[in-house]
Write a structure and sequence with these properties.
Protein name: Methyltransferase type 11 domain-containing protein
CATH class: Alpha Beta
Radius of gyration: 17 Å
InterPro entries: SAM-dependent_MTases_sf
Order of helices and strands: HHEHEHHEEHEEEHEE
Number of domains: 1
CATH architecture: 3-Layer(aba) Sandwich
Organism: Gimesia panareensis
Distance between the termini: 37 Å
Number of strands: 9
Largest sheet: 7 strands, mixed
Shape: globular
CATH topology: Rossmann fold
Strand content: 15-25%
Length: about 230
């Protein structure tokens, strides 16, 4: 089945959220970064403005800025309402209310939309989807995968996760994935099998605590690299 915009709920996170989710310091931000499944996040726009080197890939980037903007408007209030209905799954500290969450996410997505046309033209936003990326081996230093792998464990099986992580390790030196929960704020069913299998294949696999927790118990990332 072809990928369509009607299937997508665009929901972009901010640069500061990325820094915390992936525990990024000056060293990491100075590397060649691949954002995988970034959607309408503002990470690429902000880091580029700061002089960083980043390419984002997502099937979403097949669409125009007008189409993405319209889809954001169509789904924005629905996402906030679902968050209200499931407020007990979240930690309301860094973001103190659903309204504040909405303000932060809308600002991030507006920054993305402002940057998207120019960024797409120069190749910073590329249409692509795991587990097949059109990059040469070790093109990047660091891959960041936010709220896709593990989160959609009910939709993508263990073999998909393994293939995706092997492919990311082909094109980058280190992969970081956040969070390790699936929808419903429960530990991903694939986390432990992924760690066991990739470790057996010789990858260096670690689970690290990060200074970010919005989903309850969602304060860990997976770090994978070739030894």
């Amino acid at each position: 089945m072809a990928f369509t915009l009607e299937q997508v709920v665009p929901w972009g996170r901010s640069f500061e959220e990325y820094r915390a989710m992936f525990d990024l310091g000056a060293v990491e931000l100075g590397q060649r970064i691949l954002g995988c499944g970034d959607g309408p996040a503002s990470f690429n726009a902000t880091l580029t403005r700061q002089g960083g080197e980043v390419v984002s890939v997502d099937p979403l980037y097949a669409f125009s800025v007008e189409e993405i903007s319209q889809r954001i408007e169509e789904t924005f209030e629905t996402v906030l309402q679902q968050t209200r209905e499931n407020a007990g799954e979240f930690v309301w500290e860094q973001m103190r209310s659903v309204e504040e969450l909405g303000e932060i996410r809308r600002a991030a997505m507006q920054e993305f939309l402002a940057d998207y046309p120019a960024g797409k033209e120069c190749g910073r936003y590329q249409e692509a989807a795991l587990p097949a990326l059109l990059f040469e081996e070790q093109t990047f230093d660091l891959a960041l995968c936010s709220h896709f792998l593990f989160l959609y464990s009910a939709h993508f099986d263990l073999e998909f996760h393994l293939a995706a992580l092997r492919e990311l390790c082909r094109v980058v030196r280190e992969v970081r994935v956040f969070p390790l929960l699936e929808l419903g704020s429960t530990p991903s069913r694939h986390r432990d099998p992924v760690v066991a299998q990739l470790s057996a294949e010789g990858y260096d696999v670690q689970i690290r605590r990060v200074p970010y927790e919005f989903q309850k118990q969602g304060n860990e990332m997976l770090v994978v690299s070739l030894p």
